[in-house]
Every structure is written in structure tokens, then in C-alpha cells.
Batch of 3 targets.
Target 1
Amino acid sequence: LFRSRGEELERAHVTVGGLAGDRGHVLVDGDGRVLRGRDAPALAGLVAALEGDRLVVRDADGLRLEAEGLAAATGVPGAGTARADDHGAAPGGSAVAPVHLVSVGAEAGPGAEGCDPDPRANVVLDLGAGTDPGAGPETWTGEGEGRPGPGAERGWVGAVLAVGGARLVVTRTPKRCLGVYADVLVAGEVAVGDVVRRLEGGAPTTA
């Protein structure tokens, strides 16, 4: 559900359009108008998850919200959910990129000044602490020395990454968010604990 809290998955399938099922629904008011976070700030406190093909929304206490409960929780009369593609929104990723990568602890890393500390990414990397091991193919598995450290992903613009079975190309840094945006070159499955390999390097740029 766009702009709500998502669920933490052990594994996910990355398609050309982004993570399967990610941001595939939007909040609408009684007239069917798509609502953003600024229209319903309480949306950020709700937790959305797919149970089969059905979207289930719960409040912070885990209570399942049906129509009346959703309206009360968001403060929007007649609030409901709808499929994003029925309203011209791009499902599977953010509004600007299929994949938004961010590292654990990025809010304390380089290039974080002026960024919203609340990450909106759909793929989170554990880059540990240390220095970038340099040019050439690199592998980070979440342990050992030579890991690039939190926030290092903001210097990867132009790089091609292998994450699990997927291949991504880092395209740019967000203006107000942590992490980086990426397009999907090769679809595949990603899972917690997967190796992250930088196949090609790139110079940092900001768009």
C-alpha cells in the first residue's frame, strides 16, 4: 500500500517493474481519489501486507482494518484501497524508480545531510562498517572485513549490482531520501542474507 508501512519479507521476486506486490495498491477517498501521505498522514502508521492476492491493512497494534476501521484510522471518510494500476500509478516500485536501495545506518553515512531519515526503500542492504575495498568485482555478505559501510551506496551511481538472482543498475540519488534508485536489468529472486556484488563501478552524481 503506497505510503504505508510495509512487511519485512524473507524473500521477494524482483521484476522489471520492481518487487512483486510492492506498492501495488493505493489509498482512495470516498470519491475514488488517490490519497498521498500529505492527504492522510496516519497512513504512514498502518501496516499493509498481502495474504495470497488479498491486501490486508492493520493498525500499529495489529488490528485488522475493514472499511469503517480504515476510514477511522486515516481520518478520511469513505477511505478504501484500490489497485495502483487502476488509477494510473505504477505498481511494484516507487513513483520514480522500480527499486530504491538503502543501507542499514545510512542516516549516519556520507551524503545523508538534508535527507529524510525515515527510509522509504524497498531493498535494504547491510554494508557493515569499513572502507570501500576498491575497484573490481566486490562481494559483501554481511560479515568480514572490507565492507563499504553505511551510506556507501550513494557513491554507486552508474554501478551494476548483482543482488541474489537479480541484476540492478544504480541510476541516481534521491533529492530528499536516503539511498539510491535503481532499474532492473535482470529479474530474479532476492532473499535475506544474499550476497551483494558490484560488477561495474560508477562516479557519484545527484539528480
Note: The radius of gyration is 18 Å.
Target 2
Amino acid sequence: KKIYPTQGSIQDHEISITLARVKGEKESRMIVELLASATRFLVDAIIPQPVSCDSKFGNKIPWRKSLSDALEYAKLDFRPVMVIIWMDGCPSCSELIPQVANSNEIAKMISEEFSAVALNEHRDDVKRFSVDGGYTPRIYFLSPTGKVDTRFYNKWDPEPEFKFYYPSVKGIVRSMKDVVEAYPDRCMASRPCKIHHPKNDHPLLRK
């Protein structure tokens, strides 16, 4: 409630001015907040927002947050890396992604044997993964040091022009088993293997 100063009341007059200033500041903040909300709404409507890995691939599989994170995690205990390249609006991706997300076998193997990351085709760091073209989806297996190992591709239901494309989980699991055999657990002088690594001592291994 606004307080009107009476004649000769300087204190009341000062209170009225203060209240008016506070009211003005509140109204200004409200206007700024409304404008900010409207701007965010327009930006979201015009610019397609990236879809997070978790929203498309579920939370059953322990995906790493980025390629650099996946590579760093792999080096900790010398495990291979699995990279899935996908793209919004890709029909084949829409078919394969739910299969991968719901596969208990893939989830178990990644948790125990791999460092895995799913990358959108439009990311800058995906350019290095164009071994035989830029189609989607495609899956690469990397050595623990981050080098693409071209020995591992879809050999069971292959598409000659798209070697690293897997139409089903079955082929992915077979390749994963081959990769595990090629990169067995082993201790190194400067880095213990998965069995002997003091996992609770490193922040990346607690994620």
C-alpha cells in the first residue's frame, strides 16, 4: 500500500519515494525476465536443439559424456573404445538405436570391457571417423590408445559399401566379442589392468 506523506512529514515522504523505487525495480525485473523467456522460446523454436545421448540411448548403458572423456577413460585400464555415429532424421538410426539401448548384452559388455560414446554426425570431432564415408549409423572400435581398428566391422550381414554399418544388435555383439579377444586384460608397468586397478582412487572410474 502506497504511503502518502502528510504536510511537514519528511520521513513519510522519504518512505513513499523508497517504496516507489522498489516497485519500479520489481517491474523492471519482471519485464527483463519476460523478454528473456520469450527470447529463449523463439531460439528453441527456430534452432534445432541437440538431443542428449541419454535421451536417445537410454540410461542402461554407461555412455561417456564426450569423445575426449571416452578416450581418457579407456587409457586408465587399457580398454578398447566403441564409437557410435548417429544423426537426427536418419531412418536406420531410428531402427538401430532402440535395439542398442534395450540390449542387456551390450550394456553388460560395455560396462565390463569397453569405454563407449555415441556422437552426432554433425560434431566437429566426428570428422576423424570417416574411414569409408559419412553414412549413419556406423560403429567403430578403437584401440585403448584411440586409434581406429579397421579389423573390426560388420562381417556377418555386411553391406559392401557400408562396412561399419550394423543393421542389428546381433552383429554388433559379435564384433564386440572379437574386440575383447583382441584386447585382453593385461597389466602394464605404468598402468594396472582392469582386474588390479584401484578403481576407487580415480575420479573417472567412479562415474
Note: Residues 1-47 form one domain.
Target 3
Amino acid sequence: MPKLWQYGPYIFFCYVYDLLNEPAHVHVRAGNAEAKFWLNPVRIAWNHGHKSDDITRIERLIHENQNRNNSSYFVIARGDSPEAIPNAD
């Protein structure tokens, strides 16, 4: 489960299995809540436990960090190790 980046309580990550079997997307976890967002175009796939305000905030963060999401995702998909990605706080 490579971590792509983090903003506050939101951890943006992907599952390696998904890289080979699904279009580009990120999972976002905060506490026990997790959601999945497709990246191109950005839209929610599913949500388990995030409040609607959190979903709005997460979607905005994904839009604001689209280049980071795409480059980190495809580096990992190639099998390379991503450089440490600092907190976006």
C-alpha cells in the first residue's frame, strides 16, 4: 500500500494490485474512513465513513494536487520507488 502523500489527517495511497487492474485512482484514509477517487476525471468511486464535508475537501485536494497524484501514481505503476513525498500541510 504505497503512500502517495498526506494532507492533515488524509492519507492518499494506492493498492499495488489496483495499479495493474484499474484506471488511475487514489484511496484516501482518515481514521477508520476510506474513499476511492478516480483521477481522470476526478470523481468519487465509493466512500465508507467520510462525512460529506470531508469528501468535498478531499476532492478539492485531489484537484489541487493533480500533478502530484498522477506522477506519484505512474512512478509506482512502473515499479519504481517514489521519492519521499512530504506532507502537504
Note: The chain has one domain: 3-77.
